[in-house]
Design brief:
The protein is built from ten helices and nine strands. By secondary structure, it is α+β, with helices and mostly antiparallel strands. The chain folds into two domains: 136 residues, BirA Bifunctional Protein, domain 2 (2-Layer Sandwich), CATH 3.30.930; 210 residues, no CATH class. The strands form three sheets. Strands 1-3-4-2 form a four-stranded antiparallel beta sheet, with helices on both faces. The chain has a three-stranded antiparallel beta sheet with strand order 5-6-7. β5 and β6 form a beta hairpin. α9 runs antiparallel to α10. The longest helix has 77 residues. It is elongated.
Length: 387
C-alpha cells in the first residue's frame, strides 16, 4: 500500500494541486508518508490492519478527449465520494502521459463503521456504467465496444489492449509475446478445422494445451512453459471471435466448405471418367463409324484394306495412350499437391515448436539469473555488520 501511494503521488507525475483525500485527513499537505499513516491509523483503530489493505482504480481518458487536469480531479473526487462513500480515498491526476488519467487509492476499512471494502465483478460493471453516466453528463466520450475513439469500427485481428501492462507488452515486443503466439496458433489451427477434437489436436501440435470443458464458461490455453490465457482475453486483445460458440460456428462453416469442395472435386472426377469412357467407346467402335468424303455423307461398311486397318489401330492406340497419360498426370499432380500441403504444415509446426523451445530456454536462463541475484542479496544481508 505504501509503494502504491508513493507511486501515485510522485512529483514527476502529478502535483499537490491535482491531489485530494476524501474522508478524515487532518494534515495540511498531501504526501505519501502522511497518507499512508492516515490509512494505517484508521485500520488499527478497527483492529483490521491485515489482509487486503487497499483498492487501486484508474479512470483514463483518450488523448484526444477535451478534458483538463482540473476537470479530471473534480471527476475523480465526485466518483470517490459517491462510489466509495465512507472510505478514505486518495485521488490524484497524472498528466505525464499523452492522455490524462486519474488514480484512486481507497482504504479497505471504512472510517464510519469499520467494515471491509468488497468489490465483485458485478460491482466493477456497475462502476463502469457509473463512470459512463458521469461522462455523458459532462459531454465526454463514452467508449463503445468494437469501435475506436472516433467511432470507426475496429477491424478484425487488430490489437486492442485493455490494460497498461498488456499495452506496453505489445508496443515494445509483440513478436515475443506468448499472447500473440497463442492468437496465431488459434488462427492456424482453425484453418479447415471441422471439429473441437481436431482443433485441440492441432493446438497441441503448435505447443498449446487446450482446456475446453462444459463446466467452464471459457476456454483456457496453456503453453509449454505454463503460461495461460483465456479465449476472452484473446478476443478482446485481437478483436477476434473465438469463444466456444464462435469456434463451433467456425467448425460448421469449415465443414460445409470442405463438403462443397469435395462435391465439386467428385463431380470433376466423374466428368473426366465419363470423358475417358466416351473415348474408349469411340476407340472400340472404330471399325464402323460415320465419316465424310468428297462432301458426301456415307456409311463405311464392308471389308477394309490392311493399310486402313493398321491406320485405325494406330489411331486407337494413340488415343488410349494419351488418355492414360492424362489420367496419370492428373493423379501425380494431386499427390504432389497433397505432399506440398503436408510439407508446409510440418514446417509451420516445427518453426513454432522451435520458437517455443527458445523462449522456454530463455525463460529458464532469466529465472536462474534471478535466483542467483536473490541468493547474493541474502548472503550480503547475512554478512553485513550487526546492529
Amino acid at each position: 500500500m505504501r509503494n502504491c501511494i508513493e507511486y501515485v503521488l510522485r512529483p514527476d507525475k502529478t502535483s499537490e494541486l491535482l491531489t485530494y483525500v476524501t474522508g478524515p485527513y487532518r494534515h495540511d499537505e498531501i504526501n505519501y508518508d502522511l497518507v499512508y499513516r492516515t490509512f494505517l491509523e484508521e485500520k488499527k483503530m478497527w483492529d483490521k490492519d491485515t489482509g487486503r489493505m487497499y483498492a487501486h482504480n484508474i479512470i483514463s481518458w483518450h488523448k484526444d478527449e477535451q478534458i483538463t487536469p482540473d476537470q479530471a480531479l473534480e471527476f475523480g473526487k465526485q466518483f470517490a465520494e459517491t462510489w466509495f462513500s465512507g472510505f478514505q480515498t486518495l485521488v490524484a491526476v497524472h498528466k505525464d502521459k499523452d492522455h490524462i488519467h486519474c488514480h484512486l487509492v481507497t482504504n479497505s476499512v471504512s472510517y464510519e463503521d469499520g467494515r471491509k471494502l468488497h468489490n465483485t465483478k458485478k460491482d466493477l460493471e456497475r462502476m463502469k456504467q457509473f463512470t459512463n453516466q458521469m461522462c455523458r453528463e459532462r459531454g465526454l466520450t463514452v467508449a463503445e465496444k468494437g469501435k475506436h475513439f472516433d467511432g470507426s469500427q475496429i477491424e478484425k485481428g487488430e490489437v486492442i489492449a485493455w490494460s497498461k501492462d498488456k499495452y506496453n507488452l505489445f508496443r515494445q515486443q509483440v513478436k515475443d509475446s506468448f499472447v500473440a503466439d497463442c492468437a496465431m496458433a488459434v488462427l492456424k489451427a482453425l484453418e479447415n478445422c471441422i471439429s473441437k477434437e481436431k482443433f485441440i489436436e492441432k493446438m497441441k501440435q503448435f505447443g498449446w494445451k487446450v482446456n475446453w470443458t462444459e463446466k467452464r464458461k471459457h476456454i483456457t490455453f496453456q503453453n509449454q512453459v505454463g503460461k495461460k490465457i483465456r479465449d476472452s482475453n484473446l478476443s478482446k486483445t485481437f478483436h477476434l471471435d473465438i469463444s466456444k460458440e464462435d469456434l463451433e460456428n467456425e467448425f460448421d462453416r469449415n465443414y460445409e466448405r470442405v463438403r462443397a469442395e469435395a462435391e465439386r472435386t467428385n463431380g470433376a472426377d466423374e466428368e473426366l471418367a465419363g470423358y475417358y469412357r466416351q473415348v474408349e467407346a469411340a476407340c472400340e467402335g472404330a471399325g464402323g463409324v460415320t465419316g465424310a468424303s468428297d462432301g458426301r455423307e456415307r456409311q463405311v461398311t464392308g471389308e477394309k484394306s490392311e493399310d486402313e486397318t493398321q491406320a485405325e489401330n494406330g489411331k486407337t492406340e494413340f488415343i488410349l495412350r494419351e488418355s492414360r497419360n492424362a489420367r496419370r498426370n492428373s493423379e501425380i499432380k494431386r499427390r504432389n499437391s497433397s505432399f506440398d500441403n503436408r510439407t508446409v504444415r510440418n514446417a509451420e509446426v516445427e518453426s513454432i515448436a522451435s520458437a517455443e523451445q527458445r523462449r522456454f530456454e530463455e525463460q529458464k536462463r532469466l529465472e536462474e539469473q534471478e535466483r542467483t541475484r536473490a541468493a547474493r542479496r541474502r548472503n550480503k544481508r547475512r554478512s553485513g555488520p550487526e546492529l
